[in-house]
Amino acid sequence: VIGLGMAAGSLGMVIFSPVTQALITNLGWHDALVGLAVISIVIAPLAILLPNNPDGGVAASVPGQTVVGAVREAARHRGYVLLTTGFFVCGFHVTFISVHFPAYISDLGLNPAVAAWSLALIGLFNIGGSLMSGFAGQRWSKKAGLSFIYTGRAIAILALLLLPKTEMTMYVFAAAMGLLWLSTVPLTTGIVAQVFGVRYFATLSGIVFFSHQVGSFLGAWLGGVVYDRTGSYDGMWIAGIVLGVAAALIHLPINESPLARLRDVA
Predict the structure, then answer these.
(1) Full-model pTM
(2) CA distance 42 to 27
(3) pLDDT above 80: residue 264
(4) Which of 151, 209, 174, 196 has its CA nearest to residue 2?
(5) By C-alpha distance, which of 262, 260, 265, 248 is closest to 82?
(6) Burial code of 234-266, b = ≥16 C-beta within 10 A, e = fewer?
(7) Which residue did the predictor score with more confidence, 117 or 251?
(8) 204, CA 20 to 30 Å: which among 35, 41, 171, 191?
């Protein structure tokens, strides 16, 4: 289900990357932002239509546990700490690429349209990547899947640095990263639900996602700092490779087994 949600979000990336580039070209960045803001305002009220069932019918599976108790329990779980740490790398990768890849392509002297279509390709291939990740996580080890994804990202970035900087290279890189883009989300959230249950799933997943957002901040900010000081993005790409390898290794020791209390209930 999470994979389907990620795929739907990626469809928006496919559509709006070229649309936004066209708006910027014809109307300027200011009016393009206004147009996107209007679309966001129209979308927001749709949240009212979502179902609201806080307990989800599973409160009885963890008798007496509070949200504070659930957070403390997770904080003492080594796998949860490793998972949270690893998701930092996901945020670093995706936000650095989202924010700075168009500028990187422009610095190479390629047409700005290449950047727009590259981002669209990331979204397009992420639809397949998210769905495949969700299906794979139901059948095989989720931590192994995450290790595979982060290793794949490191390899893709290394290839980008070594290959000739052509339009085709940018498109192939975008397609590869798209497959690995948000395919981490179904597996990461799946481990949280599998280990701790779903009663406080939103809170525990939110904490993990907070780490993702810290990585996102640093990916965007450091990308600008490194470029301003060195005139190149190479340092950030190398950091992306190192972090990808580190994340691949961090996920391997995670214990995916449900907690004893959940096994007892089952």
Answers:
(1) 0.80
(2) 21
(3) no
(4) 209
(5) 248
(6) eebbebbbebbbebbebbeebeeebbeebeeee
(7) 251
(8) 41
